[in-house]
Amino acid sequence: MRIEDEIKQPVFRNNFEKAIINLSYTAGWLEVRQAAAFRPYGLTLPQFNILRILRGQHPQPATVALLIDRMLDKTSNASRIVDRLEEKQLVTRCVCPVNRRAVDIRITDAGLELLGRIEAEDILNPVRLGLGAFSADELHQLNELLDKMRSDN
Amino acid sequence: MRIEDEIKQPVFRNNFEKAIINLSYTAGWLEVRQAAAFRPYGLTLPQFNILRILRGQHPQPATVALLIDRMLDKTSNASRIVDRLEEKQLVTRCVCPVNRRAVDIRITDAGLELLGRIEAEDILNPVRLGLGAFSADELHQLNELLDKMRSDN
DNA sequence: TAACATTAAATGTATCTACACATATTTGTA
DNA sequence: TACAAATATGTGTAGATACATTTAATGTTA
């Protein structure tokens, strides 16, 4: 459905404003679907992303600073997302022995098992999420256009 | 900058996953800039959108149900966003006389004045927000691709 | 008309983003 | 060595999203 019909606004000031609104709306639309896919597992999208970063480091620990560096959203509060994961015993946290300012965070066996279970279901598969079908060329175009949006010129 | 470099992830499983991540990242990037533009006026983006809907109705009142219908994000809690606007005396709320379940919400003169001031500054102008320059053709393509993403087929 | 369903909004709870500030530790330097 | 600066993380507060539940008013129907 075209964005005009989705949000019942027949006219935009210009196509740039329309693209900006379309971008925000589509990203929100996608997020709702992703969150719904995670709900059965008791995880949110940020929690899932942190778990994946931790598995990438495993069996080495990660610090909060490393998580922030790897996260999409730099300003989000990794510390409190780790709190939630720790409550669910999916990660452990202990003061780093060589630098007591830092905190070593590790994914637990339960965390690894949960990640494996989620990925086995392939819940983030675009088709399963109900997304449109794109050609290789269209995906390339979309990526280029989005990169250009942030080009700051 | 390409999304690979932005988030320091050189490889994606496929271009579809890359586009999904690019979409979320770019929307978040944009939101940060929009929020910063509103900050000097003490408004958030959802608050601004509600005010614009109310101005569209003015001098007729709107109900919470009408606000939700017009909002981009259907599940957001319009009731509490109106709370914030009411505290700032930018809107008024009173029980609808013909249907006492409903609440009539109106933008105040101060609200109209604030909206006018914000729009006079043109703070959401794409160039002012630091967005890339697009041709008419590229904007059309981007809108088509985003619409297609939500096409659910 | 009494009983029940529906509607409109508000409230409760959990999580997240955003930003400022606090605390503890380490490092650099006079 | 003492002390300031930098670093790593945690905490506080405000606003928002998401979803379930509650309250009050209105419709509907037996």
List keywords for this structure.
mainly alpha; 153 residues; two-stranded antiparallel ribbon; homodimer; 7 helices; DNA-binding
Short description:
Chain A is mostly helical. Chain A has helices at 3-6, 15-38, 45-57, 64-70, 78-87, 109-121, 136-149; strands spanning 91-95, 103-107.
The shape of chain A, in one word, is elongated
Q: Biggest protein-protein interface?
A: A-B, 52 and 52 residues
Termini separation of chain A:
31 Å
Helical run tally of chain A: 7
Question: How would you characterize this protein structure?
Answer:
Two copies of one chain form a homodimer. With 153 residues, chain A is mainly alpha-helical. The first copy, chain A, is 56% helix and 7% strand. Chain A contains seven helices and two strands, in the order H-H-H-H-H-E-E-H-H. The first copy, chain A, has helices at 3-6, 15-38, 45-57, 64-70, 78-87, 109-121, 136-149, and strands spanning 91-95, 103-107. A two-stranded antiparallel ribbon of chain A has the order 1-2. In chain A, strand 1 and strand 2 form a beta hairpin. In chain A, helix 3 crosses helix 5. The longest helix of chain A is centred in the first third of the chain and has 24 residues, at 15-38. Chains A and B meet through helix 2 and helix 7 of A and helix 2 and helix 7 of B. The structure holds a DNA duplex (30 and 30 nucleotides).
